[in-house]
Amino acid sequence: MIFNLFAPLADEFAAFNLIRYITFRAGAACLTAFVLSLVLGPTVIRWLRLRQRGGQPIREDGPARHLVEKKGTPTMGGVLILLALVVATLLWADLRNGYVWAVLLVTAGYGALGFTDDFLKVTKRNTKGVSGRHKLIAQAVLGLGAALWMMWLMPGALADKLAFPVFKDVLLPLGPVFPLLGMLVMMGASNAVNLTDGLDGLAIVPAMIAAAVFALIAYLVGRVDYATYLQLHYVPGSGELAIFLSALLGSGLASSPRAPGMFKASAMRWPTGSAATRARTTSPRAAARTGPAAALGTTPSSASSATIPSRAAMAPICCTAATGLTRWAAARAPIASTAGPATTSCQGAMAPLPTP
């Protein structure tokens, strides 16, 4: 919206020329989503807690610790991520770009499906929600529609072909199979993240990593100079997806401290947030153009054991940081926990490692 309003004025006012740069708008979208999540987070969580007496029912076939740790924790926390993501994208992206609307369709559709699933679980006080058959049908319709839309947006030479990151000139023609493959990728990834987030609540961090990688890919293949230099397939307009993915990164950064992996969650995001999160990080067409393994092109080098601090040396720092994060989170959104007040014990971390 901001781009469409002020970019035409760049010739008269030099300050508006910044808006023409995708990198500037991507950073602004990330910051906007981050601030929105921080500002609205406590209010949304308090509202969810008031509306959900007792929280979402916990599955009995899951880990036993969830019956204690997640009991009474409200669900639908993914609404906060989706709200910040959509608002930041609409503010900073070029709204004339079809790729932006395609990924917003997948995000909003999968998010609405997850919201409906959460709503049914809370209101009916059971763990069933939307039936598996209906859920798969809705995911298939949304995924197939998005894949067909992106095929229509793509240049004819790339519309139904799959590229490989190592073999620069190899394009595998898939024809009518391509939208079906795209649909299966979105469905499979969404359900995989939904199940993973239901087990440990840590899906937001891998989603942030994937969003950052895909944002870089989208930006590179959306610029003809970089795409030519790196021998990638140029996809006109795909650079705008970097703004969407940067907004996802910002909303995830603000929401990640509430993940159960750091301390007891203030609101569970699954499946409202997790069902949409992986769908949107796998949907950008720019990633498909560079091949399915584009995000795995490099392998981080292993660190030397000599540079890794000892456990005893790092324990005071880690414990201090954990205590500070816990107190900061409690001040922002008070947590009603059945396990009593949060405490941080450093004795276990301070204990020396056993000698062989």
Mean pLDDT: 74
Structural category: mainly alpha
Number of strands: 2
Low-confidence stretches: 258-268, 283-318, 334-356
Order of helices and strands: HHHHHHEEHHHHHHHH
Please state the CA-atom Rg, rounded to the nearest Å.
22 Å
**Biggest sheet overview:** 2 strands, antiparallel
Terminal CA distance reads 63 Å
Task: Note the total helix count.
Answer: 14
Q: Determine the fraction of residues in helical runs and give it as a percent range.
A: 55-70%
Instruction: State which percent range the strand residues make up.
Output: under 5%
* Number of individual domains: 2
* Largest sheet strand order: 1-2
Give the overall form: globular
Describe the protein in words.
40% of the residues are buried. Helix 4 runs antiparallel to helix 5 (98-124), helix 5 (98-124) packs antiparallel against helix 6 (132-153) and helix 8 (204-221) packs parallel to helix 11. The longest helix has 30 residues, at 22-51. The protein has a two-stranded antiparallel sheet with strand order 1-2. It is built from 14 helices and 2 strands, in the order H-H-H-H-H-H-E-E-H-H-H-H-H-H-H-H. With 356 residues, it is mainly alpha-helical. A hairpin with a 7-residue loop joins strand 1 (161-163) and strand 2. It folds into 2 domains: 2-299, no CATH class; 309-350, no CATH class.
